[in-house]
Design brief:
31% helix; 2 helices; 4-stranded antiparallel β-sheet; 36% strand; TATA-Binding Protein
Amino acid sequence: MEALAGNPPKEFDGLKFLSSNLLDGCKLYLPDGWVMFRASGTEPIVRIYAEANDPNRLQEILNKAVRYANNA
């Protein structure tokens, strides 16, 4: 998680990010939504949150984010 926050990616798995916000985790903004990686304060896990304009797009973003986190 520290590596992600220290150097947020510009893209991964075809998702290109417009900007990032490191205030409460690592939130990466897309043209049509966002994805956020946030370390739990009580468990040894990283939670992934996302929002998109379309349910299918949301699922695509989440799938790619989980794949990215598993390979980090």
